[in-house]
Design brief:
This protein has three domains: 3-82, Gyrase A, domain 2, CATH 3.30.1360.70; 112-260 and 306-365, 3-Layer(aba) Sandwich (Rossmann fold); 380-555, Isoleucyl-tRNA Synthetase, Domain 1 (Orthogonal Bundle). The chain is built from 22 helices and twelve strands. The protein has helices at 3-12, 19-25, 42-48, 52-62, 84-98, 128-146, 162-174, 177-182, 184-201, 204-217, 221-245, 262-271, 305-320, 334-346, 380-398, 405-422, 434-437, 445-462, 477-487, 489-499, 503-522, 531-555, and strands at 37-40, 68-74, 77-82, 112-116, 150-154, 275-278, 281-284, 294-297, 324-328, 355-358, 363-365, 430-432. The strands form four sheets. A four-stranded parallel β-sheet has the order 5-4-9-10, sandwiched between helices. Helix 6 links the parallel strand 4 (112-116) and strand 5. It starts with a helix and ends in an 8-residue tail after the last helix. Bound molecules: arginine. Arginine (ARG) binds at residues 116, 119-121, 156, 158, 309, 312, 327, 329.
């Protein structure tokens, strides 16, 4: 049972407003004394031309009281206190019945959402920022599926551009074939860095790089051969990281995919009458929007990042007919996306309004620099491995006899990193701090996972639940708070989609874990003598574990049964 929609239907019978609109207005008050749900009457006041206080007191007389302990008025608010034993029973039974599906819905009605995320650059060194877009995208992708949408995960690989010319030049001079096979990204980074160092002394190298890229765009055999090699090797390296995170994509159509589609898009921009010549380059002027021009073709005739993004946006609309098209990319590219979307709008494409840049903050390490040009890069794979091995150390210290230690360490270690990314609003910068991240206390993944494992160990200890279950005996403050939280999972998932903020889910699951531990620290299940009450408590523990598992799944984390 969803209380919000139940209350909305109840109210709708007495006022002239859509139930779905009413439902959106219903709030969850910050303090339990103010009710479990509250309906503010401010909005109605405009329509009905009456004071909100008046509306509230009139409404409360008419409402159906069934299922509620009481419905009261507090100023402009109608406050609903639900019948606790009905709520407890309904929520717990619903969670246990729906299992892994609890929290999902069909509100998306199969609407297509294209999602551009991860999208690392093959030739350039990549950074922990790409892990940010990867985990954000993966979490939103899973959440979209859970709410009945059809998301399309697109990895818009940076597999085209002048940097490939530079890489070809560098490889011909200093490349090591064997190293490229073994550790492709490291080898590419090595020669890329060397190229930049050498080019500072010898600027002609830059021209050579440009020349090679031009040849590549023209499809010359040798350049294409090199490019393919770099691309395959690079991808296989990324794949290791995706496997560790269990991230999958529906499409790997990266920048090179649009190579044969850029002529058409440039011609179209021209046809629409917005293409201007600027010192030999072809641009779209955006002064009116207080932006520098969007360059679609460079003076040497080569295309650039923006050209390929214009082609990609149109291709996605034509291919998938998306309702929304998300670009989960760092905030430093905000201007780029504004330019691209505005250009699309000027081309007459109203769907450009549904193209949305979802930016995120910068990632730093408390104890390491993350510069990419100089070569002292922190590699994604190394970061993940380090987290796993640090977790294994902790396990060896705390619980050396644990079974499947390696597997547990993997799930906890990787989960800790993923959670660190998703814990706060995405535009906030992140400073990685191993100690904090891997702590079993505080707002961390290990804390949530530990809570789950604790719940599971309780369930193992007491075995199968037999005999009467009396939910009306879950009458403590702690129990009711926990169960109310369990009932709000779907809201958290929808809020995450509404704002493209998985932190709505991570905050939620932290709240569930905290509420559970509060219960557990105040009430002993072992000492519960009344077996109908004990059984109800065990059911509540089971439901809590299920919700934690489902919420962590939406964040891209796995639970462990023991830790
Ligand atoms: N490869 C780019 C980068 O690493 C991100 C690409 C984002 N997607 C896009 N359609 N531009 O900076």
């Amino acid at each position: 049972m969803n209380y919000k929609s139940l209350i909305a239907q109840n109210i709708q019978k007495h006022i002239d407003m859509d139930a779905s609109q009413i439902e959106k207005l219903i709030e969850i008050p910050p303090q339990p004394e103010m009710g479990d749900f509250a309906f503010p009457c401010f909005q109605l006041s405009k329509v009905l031309r009456k004071a909100p206080q008046m509306i509230a007191s009139e409404l409360v007389e008419k409402l159906d009281k069934e299922g509620f302990e009481s419905i009261t008025v507090s100023g402009p608010y109608v406050n609903f206190f639900v019948d606790k034993s009905v709520l407890c029973k309904n929520v717990i039974e619903k969670v246990l019945e729906e299992g892994d599906n609890y929290g999902s819905s069909s509100v998306g009605q199969g609407e297509v959402i294209t999602m551009d995320y991860s999208s690392p650059n093959i030739a350039k060194p990549f950074h922990v920022g790409h892990l940010f877009t990867t985990v954000l995208g993966n979490s939103l992708y899973k959440t979209y599926i859970s709410q009945g949408y059809k998301p399309v995960a697109i990895n818009h690989l940076g597999d085209w551009g002048t940097q490939f010319g530079k890489l070809i030049s560098a490889f011909k001079r200093w490349g090591d074939e064997e190293a490229l096979e073994k550790e492709p990204i490291k080898e590419m980074l090595r020669i890329y860095v060397k190229f930049h160092d050498e080019a500072e002394k010898n600027p002609e190298l830059e021209d050579e790089g440009r020349e090679y890229f031009k040849n590549l765009e023209e499809g010359r055999e040798e350049e294409v051969m090199f490019w393919n090699k770099f691309k395959d090797c690079g991808l296989s390296d990324f794949q290791k990281v995706y496997d560790m995170l269990d991230v999958k994509f529906d499409s790997y159509a990266g920048e090179s995919f649009y190579n044969d589609k850029t002529d058409a898009i440039i011609a179209e921009v021209d046809e629409k009458g917005i293409l201007v010549d600027s010192n030999g380059a072809k641009v779209v002027m955006l002064d009116e929007y207080n932006m520098p021009p969007c360059i679609v073709e460079k003076a040497d005739g080569a295309t650039i990042y923006a050209t390929r993004d214009l082609a990609a946006a149109k291709y996605r609309k034509d291919t998938y007919d998306f309702k929304k098209s998300l670009y989960i990319v760092g905030k430093d590219q905000a201007l780029h996306f504004k330019q691209v979307f505005t250009t699309l709008k000027l081309m007459g494409y109203d769907w450009a309004d549904n193209c949305i840049h979802v930016p995120f903050g910068i990632v730093k390490f408390a104890d390491k620099k993350l510069s990419t040009r100089k070569g002292d890069v922190v590699f994604l794979e190394d970061v993940l491995n380090e987290s796993v091995s640090k977790t294994l150390d902790i396990i060896n210290e705390k619980n050396p006899t644990l079974e499947n230690k390696e597997d547990v360490a993997k799930k906890i270690g990787i989960g800790a990193i993923v959670f660190t990314y998703l814990k706060n609003h995405r535009e906030r910068d992140i400073v990685f701090d191993w100690k904090e991240m891997l702590s079993f206390e505080g707002e961390t993944a290990p804390y949530v996972q530990y809570t789950y494992a604790r719940g599971k160990s309780i369930l193992r200890k007491f075995g199968a639940i037999e005999g009467e279950v009396d939910y009306s005996k879950l009458n403590s403050k702690e129990e009711f708070e926990l169960i109310k939280l369990l009932s709000n999972f779907n809201d958290a998932a929808l809020a995450a989609l509404d704002k493209s903020e998985p932190c709505m889910i991570s905050r939620y699951v932290l709240d569930v874990a905290k509420a559970f531990n509060k219960f557990y620290n105040n009430h002993s299940i072992a000492a519960t003598e009344d077996s109908a009450q004990k059984n109800a408590r065990l059911k509540m523990v089971e439901a809590t574990c299920q919700v934690i598992k489902n919420a962590l799944y939406l964040l891209g984390l796995e639970v462990v049964e023991k830790m």
